[in-house]
Backbone:
């Protein structure tokens, strides 16, 4: 069974997600931005969601974690919760 570990930053607007993604691209720390800006309780842990299997997260989130490149920051990804920046830490 495939498992993955990911972290994310959840914000209310696409613009804010895009702005944070730009900051990360310029060298800002993903975990620090998650602590400051993420609306998800995981923000306190730098956005870390731990390990999970396919189907445990909403589909648009799952699609990124289980199909896109590992260690890259993907997004903004829209779900019913808001806009996510997602980084898959590992997948096996």
Residues:
């Amino acid at each position: 069974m495939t498992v993955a570990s990911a972290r994310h930053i959840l914000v209310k607007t696409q613009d804010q997600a895009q702005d944070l993604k730009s900051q990360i691209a310029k060298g800002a720390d993903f975990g620090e931005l998650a602590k400051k800006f993420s609306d998800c309780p995981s923000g306190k842990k730098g956005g870390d969601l731990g390990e999970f299997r396919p189907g445990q997260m909403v589909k648009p989130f799952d699609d990124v974690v289980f199909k896109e490149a590992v260690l890259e920051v993907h997004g903004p990804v829209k779900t019913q919760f808001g806009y996510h920046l997602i980084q898959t830490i590992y997948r096996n």
